[in-house]
Amino acid sequence: MKLEWNEARKHFEEHTIWLDKVEMFWFQHMWQLIDEQGLTIYNSLVEKFAVYSRLYATIKIYREFCEVACEESADFDFNLSRLSFDRIIDKDDDVEEYVYKDLIEGLVCDNRTMNTIFEVIKSKFGLTTAFCSLWLTFDNRMINEIYGIFDIDDDDSDEHQEYSTDCPINSYEDYIKYLHDDSVIDAIVNSSVTGNKGAGFSWLDQNL
User: Which of 77, 80, 137, 140 would staple 23 via disulfide (CB 3.0–4.6 Å)?
Assistant: First the structure.
């Protein structure tokens, strides 16, 4: 069996941070890459828990990056996710409760699982693209300036139009397009490097 994106998405959505929820497109892309490595397939309860461990490790990595890169209070408390475990494991009355307890304890995002996800990120992205893929989920309004996307206001003349402050990423396809857009990548990498941006890059570099 496989944990498909349509099912995994429900768990990712429980842990979004941003109002625009662009991070869901990062999660979707990551889940696709994880799936390509055969890491979403399971044939037993233990393997199923390992797959969910990778899911929660992906969430934890994203939230830890946000804590460092934008000082967002985003600590991932794994214990809060246990309320939804009944629907994850499809409890079997013939299995003793302690078996589930032991498996749940083993699902905590340990270093081995975290490193597995970091390896996927490193092999599929590389450092710079990996950083941009994360940064783009919350700092993306530069796209409006790059592509001349203005606020719609019929009363404004062309000379007084202002760049839109709306999020320009409205679909997974938008996210992938801009992630592979050299102009967008250049704007992220070469715009003013704040302390937070540098800290986020260093954190990712140390973990990859």
Answer: 137
Q: What is the pLDDT of residues 125-142, one digit of tens each?
A: 999 999 999 999 988 777
CB–CB of 131/200 below 8 Å? Answer: yes
At residue 75, what is the residue type? Answer: D
Assigned token pair, 17: 């941070």
Range of the domain at 70: 5-125
Calpha distance 117→22 (Å, rounded): 20
Both tokens assigned to 144 = 């409006």
Sequential DSSP letters for 183-197? HHHHHHHHS---HHH
* DSSP-assigned states of every residue in 80-127: GGGGGHHHHHT--TTS-HHHHHHHHHHTS--HHHHHHHHHHHHHHT-H
Tell me, yes or no, whether 196 lies in a domain. Answer: no
What does the pLDDT average to over 47-63?
A: 89
- Domain for residue 83, yes or no? yes
**Is 206 inside any structural domain?**
no
Do you know the residue count of the chain? 208
* Token pair 């995002």: residue: 109
pLDDT category of residue 168 using cuts at 50, 70 and 90: confident
The stretch 163-191 carries a mean pLDDT of: 85
Q: Assess whether 9 and 112 both reside in one domain.
A: yes
The answer on 117 and 28 residing in a single domain is yes
pTM exceeds 0.85 for this model: no
Mean pLDDT of 156-172: 70
Structural domains in the chain (count): 2
CA gap 83, 61 in Å, rounded: 21
